[in-house]
Design brief:
Layout (H helix, E strand, L loop, with lengths): L1 H11 L4 E5 L5 H9 L3 E14 L2 E10 L9 E4 L7 E3 L7 E5 H7 L6 E4 L2 E11 L13 E5 H7 L7 E7 L2 H14 L4 E4 L11
Amino acid sequence: IQHYLHNNLQNLLGADAVLTQKDKLTIKQQTSLINLSERVVNTLQINATLTFNGKWQNSKLKAVGDDYPLQGQLLTSTSLQKSANATKGGPKAGNIWLDSRLFASLTLSIGDAINLGEHAFIVSRVLIHEPDRLMEGHSVAMRAIVNKIDMSKLAFPADLIQYRYLISASKSQVLQLIDWQKEQLPAAKIHHKSGSHPLALFW
């Protein structure tokens, strides 16, 4: 099991290291993180309810930018019947990508408009695989992705949003990041390819 977890961590972390916390990094903290890394891509996540034609479904909503993913492949499709394609960048503003379970649960088709809060989003692709999905741990929540630009207009309470920073870094930089996180961000969590698997405690 430990061998499997190690290989799983190497291939599905989506970064050399991932920093997660409940608060957005300050400009000073972001600058420090960038200086200790080769590249940083940030995403936001929140639990959100999607509605369509009187039906509703809870989901794990991720907001990404054009720089996502950092490592690995984001796989999507233009229909449930077609094969997946490697995709660079997230949805355009006003669009949303959903996993196949959400399509089934809400009886959706590509091109439908679903509601998220008081805003409508066009369903434009099927979400097949996220390279950083490992960080969801044992979650079986249905998945959705929007553009980071849309997060501000959705106006979610700040304390419900989780901020995640995907980091490309050398092994020596990762060690420096760990020391920096312990000193500057003790409430944050950091996972890295040489560390323990997020699910290791379940075995």
